[in-house]
Amino acid sequence: MDSANLLKQLLMIGVGTTSLMAERLKEVTDEWVKEGKIDPKQATDFINEMTERFKSDQVNLESLIQRQIRNVMQDLGVPRQNEIDELRGRIDRLERQLRDMEDKNWR
Q: pTM (2 decimals)?
């Protein structure tokens, strides 16, 4: 499971959803303005407020999704990148030590 790719896809879905929501809000508030239910300033304020709320909720959701992905990957035993890097470093050091020992034995 490529968590970075999954997260990118989720973010793109969020961006698309935000755009659709903003477009729909504009349509609804334009209709309300035409019907005289609200004035244009109220419509703009309403759209801005709802968009900000939605973005805030989206950020919270993205954070929750990231935590859940990390937890699932940890439960499955998938190592984190820093753990893999650490193991590569240890392997490199062991290989160097082995070569040094072999070199000493050949002398």
A: 0.48
Domain spans in the chain, listed from the N-terminal domain onward: 3-76, 80-107
Count of CB atoms within 10 A of residue 43's CB? Answer: 19
DSSP single-letter state for residue 78 = P
What's the CA gap between 67 and 32, in Å, rounded? 40
Residue 62 tokens, joined: 């993205």
* Rounded-to-integer distance, Cα 100 and Cα 59, Å: 52
The percentage of the chain sitting over the pLDDT mark of 70, rounded to a whole number, equals 89
Q: Which sign, positive or negative, has the C-alpha torsion 6, 12, 15, 19?
A: negative
In this predicted structure, what is the pLDDT of residue 70?
Answer: 85
Query: Tens of pLDDT along 60-73?
Result: 877 888 888 888 88
Report how many helices (DSSP H) and strands (DSSP E) the chain contains, helices first. 3, 0
Q: For the purposes of burial, counting CB atoms within 10 Å of the CB of 51, is it exposed (0-12), middle (13-18) or buried (19 or more)?
A: middle
